Amino acid sequence: MATSSGAGVTSTSRSGAGVGSGSRPVGRVACAAVINHNNAPLFLKVFKDAAGSLPRQTDAVVRMQMHEVVYNSLDVVEERLVALRAQSARDNDGFLGCLAVVGPMSLYGFVTNTHLKFIIALRSTGPHDYKDSTVKALFRKLHAAVIGAFLNPFTLPDAPIVSAGFEARVDEIARRFG
Amino acid sequence: MSKASLSKLGDAAFERTDKVSAELLALTYGSFVRQLLIDYEDAEEVNAQLAKMGYNIGVRLVDDFLAKSNAPPCASFADTADIVAKVAFKMFLGVPALVGSWSSDRRTFSLVFTDNPLAEFTELPEKWGGVWYSNVLCGVIKGALEMVQMEVDARFVRCTLRGEDLNEIRVTLLQVLQEKPPVDDE
Description:
Helix content of chain B: 40-55%
Strand order of the largest sheet of chain A: 2-1-5-4-3
Structural class of chain B: alpha+beta
Radius of gyration of chain B: 17 Å
Strand order of the largest sheet of chain B: 1-2-4-3
Order of helices and strands of chain B: HHHHEEHEE
CATH topology of chain B: Muramoyl-pentapeptide Carboxypeptidase, domain 2
Distance between the termini of chain B: 41 Å
Protein name (chain A): Trafficking protein particle complex subunit 2-like protein
InterPro entries (chain A): Longin-like_dom_sf, Sedlin, TRAPPC2L
Number of domains of chain A: 1
Strand content of chain A: 15-25%
Low-confidence stretches of chain A: 1-23
Order of helices and strands of chain A: EEHEEEHH
Oligomer: heterodimer
Mean pLDDT of chain A: 78
Helix content of chain A: 25-40%
CATH class of chain A: Alpha Beta
CATH architecture of chain B: 2-Layer Sandwich
Largest interface: A-B, 10 and 14 residues
Radius of gyration of chain A: 16 Å
Pfam family, one (chain A): Sedlin_N
Distance between the termini of chain A: 30 Å
Largest sheet of chain A: 5 strands, antiparallel
Family (chain A): Belongs to the TRAPP small subunits family. Sedlin subfamily.
Strand content of chain B: 15-25%
Number of helices of chain A: 3
Number of strands of chain B: 4
CATH topology of chain A: Beta-Lactamase
Organism (chain A): Porphyra umbilicalis (Purple laver)
Number of helices of chain B: 5
Shape of chain B: globular
């Protein structure tokens, strides 16, 4: 199940979140991921200070844990998609709501009409820390950035997005979110 | 003719011409360049092909330009530069260019522009750092000016896709071609 703590991110590690980040306020976006219709990861960016990892963990470990957390949440995405299909098309804006709470993070999902899935992990204390409208606005910004990346003729469909510009735009979106 | 009125001329010509969507242009050109890179696997070769293609566009486009733009005749190479920048760029690309950096012998100038509709969405992979993505424009300038008896060399020196803040094409007048009568013309 997606909510399992298999990723090893426990609530005790939250106290360590601010350690490595100096005086800079800790960001609220811990991770942003783009997954294609076949559930293959196209992009995954971890914001380590917000991810609540212990300082001694290496970037690679944190990244791997985040991969696992996101991957697990895809089960919930599938469930939500079934529920979403039952809704009328007009109410369906692709927002899947809070998928899971894993340790110090809440995971939110969004699906586009082309079945691209976006997962964003936000630092939180529970599933109701953020208003839906706030998270939706965040997804809309990410969606716009992904559209931009796909319009680049050198981005191959269904291949991981390798683009410094896209990464910088995601950084910017996360930074602005706080 | 003053530069301001040339700009107006460019705007008017742009208003009159048929438009296509920016996405169509940028994506068509982008997939074209990508395919060239796949076929030739060499940045220099692709630059040359793009310039050649542009040359063939330029020799055709110049007649259309002269017929539709109402551009005044050029008395000097400086006039030519202004008309290319203010009228031709605006008419065909929708963005005007600035003329600057004249050489002391007044035979070389720079066309500078920031917005490039060809490269709207493009981000060049590091592997192809040697590619002048919009090199087709150099070919167009060369081809078009050659049809009006000016042999020029045009090459990119700066490109926003290489992380610079503007695009710069350096244009050098090599020689003014003389109209020769056909050989053995009675």
